[in-house]
Amino acid sequence: MDIIKGGNLAQVQHVVLILSGKGGVGKSTLTTELALALRHAGKKVGILDVDLCGPSIPRMLSVGKPEVHQCDSGWVPVYTDAQKSLALMSIGFLLEDPDEAVVWRGPKKTALIGQFVSDVAWGELDVLLVDTPPGTSDEHLAVLENLKKQHKVDGAILITTPQAVSTGDVRREITFCKKTGLRILGIVENMSGFVCPHCSECSNIFSKGGGEELAKLTGSVYLGSVPLDPLLTTSIEEGKDFIQTFPDSATFSAINSIAQTLLTSIQNP
């Protein structure tokens, strides 16, 4: 199928999906931190949050629940900074009550995802990160099919934790990528060890190396590991910029390295 790069994605340079076959592995956290790392590298970044049943990124970026405005081109994304270098669109902005459950069948979810892909006026972006729900279901197919109509999708980053139960689910996500022709940009092992807040020693409480081993077995690029870090947890809970607040931490180095590898990969496919 020929891809017509137009509409609201015309000025977006690269599109990257964040995937995992399992919930609770930290997709939204890593999406947020990668976006912040890319912004600090001087890039204009957008986040499309299509985790319709668990939209957590607005809280992680401390943007509250602003009113979503419309312009001639469609919905205007919510900007997290005055320079408009980080844009966000999420169903969290459209819910009257943040505690309201999204109890929708597939067709309604698919229709909203289609709107998110085509009707958000992103403007100029270097990278658009798409945070997805766990699994390989309607939402993923809807995102991919709608994006491919308008823009080349550079690929996907797969998130896992070290345990075999997680890597097994991510293996199915790899199969999904192969079936849909989606390039795998790499695998990240999240929660890879625990960083002690007192001595900074890292203990492997969830085992270690599952993500790297999975990458070797499947012929995928291993992007690196990110430890469990109480400082990162606190930053996420309070909506603070971890990258800016703790630039000397090992976790910062890990996230920044993954972001730089991602940039190199999409700029030199």
From TrEMBL:
CDD domains associated with the record: Mrp_NBP35 (cd02037)
Gene3D superfamilies: P-loop containing nucleotide triphosphate hydrolases
GO molecular function terms attached to this record: 4 iron, 4 sulfur cluster binding; ATP binding; ATP-dependent FeS chaperone activity; metal ion binding
Keywords annotated in UniProt: 4Fe-4S, ATP-binding, Cytoplasm, Iron, Iron-sulfur, Metal-binding, Nucleotide-binding
Superkingdom, taxonomy of origin: Eukaryota
GO process terms (BP): iron-sulfur cluster assembly
Cofactors: [4Fe-4S] cluster
PROSITE patterns: MRP
GO cellular component assignments: axoneme; centriole; cytosol; nucleus
Cell location: Cytoplasm, Cytoskeleton, Cilium axoneme; Cytoplasm, Cytoskeleton, Microtubule organizing center, Centrosome, Centriole
Annotated binding of [4Fe-4S] cluster, by residue: C196, C199
Cofactor annotation comment: Binds 4 [4Fe-4S] clusters per heterotetramer. Contains two stable clusters in the N-termini of NUBP1 and two labile, bridging clusters between subunits of the NUBP1-NUBP2 heterotetramer.
Family under the similarity heading: Belongs to the Mrp/NBP35 ATP-binding proteins family. NUBP2/CFD1 subfamily.
Function: Component of the cytosolic iron-sulfur (Fe/S) protein assembly (CIA) machinery. Required for maturation of extramitochondrial Fe-S proteins. The NUBP1-NUBP2 heterotetramer forms a Fe-S scaffold complex, mediating the de novo assembly of an Fe-S cluster and its transfer to target apoproteins. Negatively regulates cilium formation and structure.
HAMAP family, per the entry: Mrp_NBP35, NUBP2
Record's subunit section: Heterotetramer of 2 NUBP1 and 2 NUBP2 chains. Interacts with KIFC1. Interacts with NUBP1.
Record-given protein name: Nucleotide binding protein 2 (MinD homolog, E. coli)
Gene that encodes the chain: nubp2
